[in-house]
TrEMBL record:
Annotated signal peptide: 1-26
Superkingdom assignment: Eukaryota
PANTHER family named in the record: OS08G0158400 PROTEIN
Pfam families per record: BBE (PF08031), FAD_binding_4 (PF01565)
InterPro entries reported in the protein's UniProt record: BBE, FAD-bd_PCMH, FAD-bd_PCMH-like_sf, FAD-bd_PCMH_sub1, FAD-bd_PCMH_sub2, Oxid_FAD_bind_N
Classification via PROSITE patterns: FAD_PCMH
Name the record gives this protein: FAD-binding PCMH-type domain-containing protein
The entry's keywords: FAD, Flavoprotein, Glycoprotein, Signal
Reported cofactor(s): FAD
GO molecular function, one term: FAD binding
Boundaries of every FAD-binding PCMH-type domain copy: 80-256
Family: Belongs to the oxygen-dependent FAD-linked oxidoreductase family.
């Protein structure tokens, strides 16, 4: 990250124009940009005119280092991928305000990176023709936990792992219902909804936000009171990047027992995995809301496996009673169950050693980077077993596949589909994430893997939600459509994918966008359009 790059350039705003005069051609379109005027604008709009502003320039080795560290999906690391004109890592809120004001004035797009896990790379690259700046929130990683009030203020550049770790430092019986991957940044995760293995008990991450601080298109800092309930609603599940830059979130923490129970049971074809998945469909959304049983299909040493993985907010004996009553076919035994703390369960679900050092949750890059492509679906009716066999066969023939299936029900059924922009609530049995990975950075390998996941997605068409075929915003998928290359976002173009992500909430998001950002300053390939 920015603070670990020894060659980081910290440039006084009043002297930066000297270094802007030479820019390499790999950056996005740089013609007709008055960099000196842009620098002067940054200086004039920062609270402290003499403060230092971390800036990474394309003609320096530091730029390449920070850019490569920014890129999480190596699918977007090729020389042909458009590069930002600048990367900035502001150190205070005033510098973020100045960046918005000056970028708007001098026609830069801003791509905001929290953790960098956007599946289509939209937080650090652009497939549009406009010059752009990457705003890396690496210096906004604070997590301030208030145990007495059961809340936490979390800055936009923090990761889920940092949030979990800081909560557990203060209390063993408080937690937060968010994702399974500790390196994911809170900014994109929460603003897209943010499901996790406690969502059946407490809902999504976005359902547990009580306040927010963000910079709007005018460069103003707003909180929930000053922005109003419509904008607050929009940024909690509607993709905050369409509306502004979130500086920090105030989260409502939730109660967890001192000990929870987890298990992970792999099943092969020969062990009846497909029949178990078929049965799981009729059970998983109806289990007590303290229990979440996920299914993951993948390959290990050439063998296709279905992994049934669970978190129960209670003890082993209670879990065994529930499973043996509701899902005896899985054959759960006492030796399969592990009682542990909630914080260690977050390590378990990410595949980390259960008894390893907790500070690994603070690591922003705990695994080697790979190339990947992801798509998603929501399921309303159980899929026939014969169709599940076809899905299994396709996984078996693929290289490095992953299908993650997460059940709904519980709290997810109780929250209205209009409660947040995330509409996939009552009536949803489960969602599916389809992913393929690859490790060789060659175009032919990429083409093959993209074809694999797209064919699997087509195969599943008859068995998933319809009119629209729903999708999850945080599993970003540009196959569903995109705004124009010049950054123009039109309602007719955007509604094709907007209805998939947001269903009936799309029109309300468009109305909020039109009100707060009528000039469509905050835009990307799948941003909410303004009607202006």
């Amino acid at each position: 990250m920015a603070h670990s790059i020894s060659s980081t350039i910290i440039i006084s705003l009043v002297h930066m124009f000297v270094l802007f005069t030479v820019l390499v051609s790999s950056a996005s379109n740089t013609s007709n940009i008055n960099y000196q005027a842009f620098i002067n604008c940054l200086s004039n709009n920062s609270v402290d005119h003499n403060s230092q502003y971390p800036v990474y320039l394309p003609n320096t080795t530091s730029y390449n280092s920070i850019l490569n560290n920014t890129i999480e999906n190596l699918r977007f690391s090729s020389p042909e991928t458009p590069k930002p004109n600048l990367i900035v890592t502001p150190v205070n809120e005033s510098q973020v305000q100045a960046l918005v004001i000056c970028s708007k004035k001098y026609h830069f797009q801003i791509r905001t990176r929290s953790g960098g896990q956007d599946f289509e790379g939209l937080s650090y690259t652009s497939q549009q023709s406009l010059p752009f700046i990457v705003l890396n929130l690496v210096n906004f990683q604070g997590v301030d936990v208030d145990v007495a009030n059961e809340t936490a203020w979390v800055q936009g550049g923090a990761t889920l792992g940092q949030v979990y770790y800081k909560i557990a430092e203060k209390s063993p019986t408080l937690g937060f219902p968010a994702g399974l991957c500790p390196p994911v940044g809170v900014g994109g995760h929460i603003s897209g909804g943010g499901w996790g293995n406690m969502m059946r008990k407490y809902g999504l991450a976005a359902d547990n936000v009580v306040d927010v601080r963000m910079v709007n298109a005018k460069g103003q800092i707003l909180d929930r009171k000053s922005m109003g309930e419509d904008l607050f609603w929009a940024v909690n599940g509607g993709g905050a990047a369409s509306f502004g830059i979130v500086l920090s979130w105030k989260l409502k923490l939730v109660h967890v027992p001192a000990n929870v129970t987890v298990f992970a049971i792999p099943k092969t074809w020969q062990q009846g995995a497909v029949s178990l998945i078929h049965k799981w469909q009729f059970v998983a959304d109806k289990l007590p809301d303290d229990l979440m049983v996920l299914v993951a299909l993948s390959k290990s040493n050439g063998t296709t496996l279905a992994l049934f993985q669970a978190l129960y907010l209670g003890g082993k004996e209670q879990l065994l009673q529930i499973m043996n009553s509701s899902f005896p076919e899985l054959g759960l035994k006492a030796q399969d169950c592990i009682e542990t703390t909630w914080i260690r369960s977050t390590m378990f679900f990410f595949g980390l050693p259960l008894n390893g050092p907790l500070n690994i949750l603070l690591d922003r890059n705990p695994r080697p980077k790979i190339s990947s492509k992801t798509k998603s679906d929501f399921v309303k009716e159980p899929i026939p077993e014969v169709a599940l066999r076809g899905m299994w066969r396709r996984v078996s023939l693929a290289d490095n596949p992953l299908i993650l299936i997460a059940p709904y029900g519980g709290k997810m059924d109780e929250i209205s589909e209009t409660g947040t922009p995330f509409p996939h609530r009552n009536g949803t049995l489960y969602h599916i994430c389809y992913e393929v990975d690859w490790f060789i950075p060659r175009p032919d390998v990429a083409t093959k893997q993209l074809q694999v996941v797209r064919r699997l997605y087509r195969y599943m068409t008859p068995y998933v939600s319809k009119s629209p075929r729903e999708a999850y915003l945080n599993y970003r998928d540009l196959d569903l459509g995109r705004n124009r290359i010049d950054g123009t976002a039109t309602y007719q173009r955007a509604k094709y994918w907007g209805l998939k992500y947001f269903n009936k909430n799309f029109d309300r998001l468009v109305n909020v966008k039109t009100k707060v950002d009528p000039d469509n300053f905050f835009t990307n390939e799948q941003s909410i359009p303004s009607l202006k």
